[in-house]
Amino acid sequence: MDHDSFDWMKLILKSSEKVQNTVKRLQSHGARTKVVGTGASGDKTLLADREAEKILVDALSKVSGVRILSEESGEIGQRGAELLAIVDPLDGSSNFERRIPFYCTSIAIVRGRRLADTRAALVRNLVTGDVYYAERGKGATKNGERIATSETSNIREAILGVDLSRTDEGTYASLARLITSAKRQVHFGANALELCFLAEGMIDAFIDVRNKTRIVDFAGGYLIAKEAGAVLSTKSGDKLLTRLEMKERFSFVSSANPQLQKVILDALKQRHP
């Protein structure tokens, strides 16, 4: 199969739409809290997680030369496959379970061994139906319209997405100066979708320095944010060289532009007095 000319947009758009319909049906039938096991990431697997994954795996498995890395089942297919599909069928499962309207499905297609080798990505907001899509070097879109990050570079005017979930006191202290300097700090509970909010300028940065981010939560939103103009790095300002493995855990800082990224990285180097 010629993967260079393959229409990834068509495949993952259609399958993500099926995921949305399935998740809505399960919620309306009162099955949103049903637990059916434990996923490869160690988190509990809801019925909605399992059914959403089945849809994506069935669709992606029909493409020859594709291996799948999924939050629920881990690695599926041959390790030597040319392409890797990184999927989080239901990012924000806890939100879904508690009726908090913020969760999505995330799909990234990688040709290579690095995050930078991501070729295409789609994130679908499973509540609103909004679709974010990007191909490497071609920009990012929301529902077919081009999107771009904000021009905010002043930290006092910036709205920061910061994941503080289950963090330790030391990490919280390292964020104190940054949080108290910003206009507002928010966190919604689905990393892939929050990176898309950064991509379209709804927030000005998204930060997670807990060393707990998983590649399945990140890969789809990563390409979309990057293609929209975001700057992404480690908390030290280095390139993200995370391994494309389920066991990998990492931190990241992403900002709307280089100026804001520098301000944030500088602030992270200091401790609040």
Computed Rg = 18 Å
- Briefly note the structural class of the backbone: alpha+beta
CATH topology term of the largest domain: Fructose-1,6-Bisphosphatase, Chain A, domain 1
Low-confidence stretches: none
Quickly count the domains: 2
Strand order in the largest sheet: 4-3-5-6-7-8-9-10
Q: Distance between termini? A: 59 Å
Largest sheet: 8 strands, mixed
Number of helical segments? Answer: 7
For the record, the CATH class of the largest domain is: Alpha Beta
Shape: globular
Proportion in β-strands: 25-35%
CATH superfamily of the largest domain: Fructose-1,6-Bisphosphatase, subunit A, domain 1
Features:
15 strands; globular; alpha+beta; Fructose-1,6-Bisphosphatase, Chain A, domain 1; 27% strand; single chain
Task: Report on the architecture of this protein.
With 273 residues, the chain is an alpha+beta fold. The chain has two domains: 8-147, 2-Layer Sandwich (Fructose-1,6-Bisphosphatase, Chain A, domain 1), CATH 3.30.540.10; 155-268, 3-Layer(aba) Sandwich (D-Maltodextrin-Binding Protein, domain 2). It has helices at residues 8-28, 47-60, 93-97, 169-181, 191-199, 215-227, 258-268, and strands at residues 35-38, 44-46, 66-70, 74-76, 83-91, 104-110, 118-125, 131-135, 140-142, 145-147, 159-162, 184-186, 205-213, 231-233, 250-255. It is globular and about 50 Å long.
